[in-house]
């Protein structure tokens, strides 16, 4: 079922792997022209080739904020419009709090917060003249409650939640909706390896997840698509947990 997204143009950062790839596949299946952005050209190219003419790619290191305005201008010049932006690209660091260096903290914030702000600002400039558009940010359960050893990531995703609400209040009167999705424990190659090697942690994860099992990347893609579509036309400023109830589990 297409929810009024036929022929629209979307930009997905980090759209060639993980949750971003699941979202890219969902968008393409719904006839959305999708431009994926990232650093790894080989992955981007392979994804675009596999998904066909509705998927294109642009190579950009989003931590280089100075490169972002030209990137957005290039996309607009080539595709004419940007209807949907999904800020998915992000990096993590697992390390004891007292061992995290200033440089490491700033590196996480640069990619996970600063680049999201800059990409959003530049894309919004293209949306304002049309008076419509939608942005979906990818948050995390780390912003919902404390998780040890990921202080920089937690700070960055908490910032995303605040930015989502502030952007929504300012931009929604101008026709631009802004929401976020907060994934829970999702079954990926990386998470499976980590949990399978730590039975105690896996039991804790599943024990506080009321639905009793891990999500899959497609669950995130479906949620992002819903928030980007007209089915969510009266929804803005929300941070939607997609976590099997983990964030409310006891």
From TrEMBL:
Which SUPFAM superfamilies does the UniProt entry name for this protein?
A: NAD(P)-binding Rossmann-fold domains
Molecular function terms from GO = oxidoreductase activity, acting on the CH-OH group of donors, NAD or NADP as acceptor
Q: Which Pfam families match?
A: adh_short_C2
Family designation: Belongs to the short-chain dehydrogenases/reductases (SDR) family.
Q: What is this protein called?
A: NAD(P)-dependent dehydrogenase (Short-subunit alcohol dehydrogenase family)
What organism does this protein naturally occur in?
Mucilaginibacter auburnensis
